[in-house]
Amino acid sequence: MANGETDLDREAFEFEKSKWSDEIRKWKAEERRKDLELEERRAELEERRAERKLKEAELELKKNEAAKQDTSVGKNKVFSDAMRSSAIRMSNDPIEAIAFFMNVKQLFDVY
Length: 111
Known about the structure:
By secondary structure, the protein is mostly helical. Helices cover 89% and strands 0% of the residues. It folds into two domains: 1-70; 72-111, no CATH class.
């Protein structure tokens, strides 16, 4: 009987051992899955932070551009750019000088 009991004990032990081994494998698989989810969440969070920083930088740039345009130097630059793109080019022909100066006068009246 001692030999039969030891075989039963050994079989019970092997069964329990395989059962715990399966449980440990399941726990490890679950842990790996949770680690992957955590890494995905961290990556998403980092991406959101980068997008937020980019938006903040763009907003700051827009604020700086608006502040530049509010100064007298900025206003003069905008005005000169508008005049430069609106005015016709003066040629070497002296007869066209009259048309050029009339156009410039009209632009000053408009702006």
